[in-house]
Write a structure and sequence with these properties.
Mean pLDDT: 89
Helix content: 25-40%
Low-confidence stretches: none
Largest sheet: 6 strands, antiparallel
Radius of gyration: 32 Å
Order of helices and strands: HEEEEEEEEEE
Structural class: alpha+beta
Strand content: 35-45%
Oligomer: single chain
């Protein structure tokens, strides 16, 4: 008996292994794209936070300079204790100062003011005229150092969503 070569009919379609490979590759590509989108979104959020912190610092810097530059009798405190200024940074939470007001009439009036850091709110306030006014946000620490007789520096440390920023404000008093 002679055997003839039988040819089987050719079947069209995909094997199950090919389908699993295609699905696996698609899932890997989708995961990579998702991770890239998530990372870029995180980067945008970090940049927004950093910009907001720097803007807050800039606003606080101008306000603090304006208030303290034209002040006298400036005293620094930490937890109710007066701080003696030195050439190294000391932690503070309150600044008391006075300013002359209404000097146009020839009768200067001395107004006492207070700038303080609310650690539980991470904000700096100025207290005068019977009320507190917020001048800055995201402040976690405040330090001061004496530079010379009429000069001192205040270091502010800010934090928003684990984005840290720290910078120094140099102040030269005029009074």
């Amino acid at each position: 008996m002679l055997m003839k070569n039988k040819t089987f009919p050719k079947k069209e379609g995909y094997l199950m292994v090919e389908i699993f490979c295609a699905i696996s590759i698609s899932l890997i590509v989708m995961n990579i794209v998702t991770i890239m989108l998530k990372d870029s979104n995180n980067l945008v959020n970090q940049t927004d936070n950093r910009i907001e912190i720097m803007e807050q610092f800039s606003e606080m810097k101008s306000t603090i300079k304006r208030e303290l530059r034209n002040s006298n009798n400036i005293k620094f405190y930490y937890k109710g204790n007066s701080i003696f200024l030195d050439n190294k940074f000391e932690r503070i939470d309150k600044i008391r100062f006075s300013q002359f007001e209404d000097v146009k009439n020839g009768n200067p009036v001395i107004i006492n003011r207070e700038m303080f850091l609310s650690r539980d709110k991470n904000k700096i306030f100025i207290y005068y005229n019977g009320g507190s006014f917020e001048i800055g946000n995201y402040v976690v620490d405040m330090e001061v150092r004496k530079e010379s007789k009429d000069n001192f520096s205040i270091k502010l440390k800010l934090n928003k969503n684990n984005n840290n920023f720290s910078d120094i404000i140099n102040i030269r008093t005029r009074n």
